Amino acid sequence: MEQNFKSGFVTLIGRPNVGKSTLMNHLIGQKIAITSKKPQTTRNRIQTVYTDENKGQIVFLDTPGIHKAKNKLGEYMVNVAERTLREVDVILWLVEPTNYIGAGEHHILEKLKRIETPIILIINKTDTVKKEEILQAIDTYQKEYNFVEIVPLSALRGQNTDILIDLIFKYLPYGPMFYDEDTITDQPERQIVAEIIREKSLHALNEEIPHGIAVTIDTMKARKKSNIIDIDATIICERDSHKGIIIGKGGNMLKKIGSNARFEIEKMLERQVNLKLWVKVKKDWRDSDFLIKNFGYREEDN
């Protein structure tokens, strides 16, 4: 291995919906984290790996958005995000291009002021505003904190993202790879499949329900001497009325979620998928420690 090879951990933080998962998917060049305009899309800490044979390896942690928690699931998500800040080599903080720092951003700023980790401020969504507004945003944030770098970019359009990789390497320590060069994520396939189904549910359903859904993979088996995988999955919701909406008239909504999810799962697994979806009600599961752990949100895994 080259003497000048660098490797380290980088976390992306920011309020919900600021574009963290979109940016990470773009940098890695593959879709790993699910994206949606609805809050609380990313619930667990997702590790993805970027390797450049000449420069080094970046292990990205895409954490849940930092926000004021309203229930036990919310508290769990915030704990995961905040603990990560002390464990990484570089923090990428994504904000929107505005010269007004809202309460959510101030909340994050207070957390950042207590740690020593180098912080790169990313002003995302630059494709949505004029150049003067980007400059005003840079000026506003510079007054609040001494960031090691400030990078305006558009994660959606891929503008300026190549500069970001070089800047991250600048602040990483020298050291060997953590993962083989062909590793892209440490997430097990089952977990990614569950997340894809949850993403398609988020896209298809209205505002109220998605917060209260989880997805469990009941069985996932490859057929012998065949290119087909059979997957049975359950969408968990909090209310009977939600169950009706998720299933839809004549099962239409569930069919739509299923066919959208199947298309994406087949692309990822490069195999034919036979997907069966079920819907179950578990009342107020987001406030139950037992059910949160049961659906895969375990502190010790993160």
Mind describing the biggest β-sheet? Answer: 6 strands, mixed
Average per-residue pLDDT, rounded, comes to 80
Helix content: 25-40%
- Categorize the overall geometry: globular
Features:
single chain; 302 residues; alpha/beta; six-stranded mixed sheet; three-stranded mixed sheet; 9 helices
General description of the model:
The chain is of the alpha/beta class and 302 residues long. Strands 2-3-1-4-5-6 form a six-stranded mixed beta sheet, with helices on both faces. A three-stranded mixed beta sheet has the order 7-8-9. 35% of the residues lie in helices and 22% in strands. It has helices spanning 20-28, 72-87, 103-112, 131-142, 161-171, 189-204, 240-247, 252-269, 289-294, and strands at residues 6-13, 46-52, 56-62, 90-95, 119-123, 149-152, 214-222, 228-237, 272-281.
Q: What are the SSEs and their pairings?
A:
Layout: E1 6-13, H1 20-28, E2 46-52, E3 56-62, H2 72-87, E4 90-95, H3 103-112, E5 119-123, H4 131-142, E6 149-152, H5 161-171, H6 189-204, E7 214-222, E8 228-237, H7 240-247, H8 252-269, E9 272-281, H9 289-294
